[in-house]
SLH domain-containing protein (Serinibacter arcticus), 237 residues
Amino acid sequence: MDTVPWDELTVSDYSPDVLGEQVVTLALTAENTTREATFTVVVRDRFVDVADDNQFALEINWLAARGISTGWTTPAGQEFRPVTHIARDAMAAFIYRLAGSPAFEEPETSPFVDVAPGDQFYREITWLAEQEITTGWTTARGAEFRPLAPIARDAMAAFLYRYADEPAVTLPETSPFTDVTPSTQFYADIAWMGEAGISTGFQGNDGTAQYQPLGPVNRDAMAAFLFRYQGYEDQLS
């Protein structure tokens, strides 16, 4: 059988981060002739513990499609562990991958006394520090990153705000969240999260919006925050 080398192969109407059936068009160009074929593909859940009806299934699968999260390998399959609190080191990894895993020469000496070369996510954490996205905590023995501690919602807002290059934000006279005031640490960062549509907070018993700044961030919520952040960034470009 004679074969003809193809010049270009294109796939359209395919979204790896969207679950369910999709009609995809495959176009093959060879010797100035294009042949097209249409077929149906099914994008299934990437994690055995994230069902289609999960509140953040779309966002979690987007995270996997972008290579931002691979989860944990188990005998049952890949697990995302959506309601587990995300640790600060994993948060660093998520942001580093969101940035496209940029080339970065790891420092021989860590900027943090509790993070050493060879530690998991050392590159990601030190990149975060080099970009001034995090400064950690100042202690008597030096700066600490506290990599295994759950990241709080206010610190998460600060990380994303700094990652976005601290865009101008109109600080409202009245906070969008009843549990955050102008004197709250990271008020501008949190207000920006609300203004950019990245966080809507929680509805309190009185019907008002609460941010719960000191509460830990679950992994499913982190997927949602990054998904919305990407949408915010796309609108700016």
Notes: The longest strand covers residues 20-30.
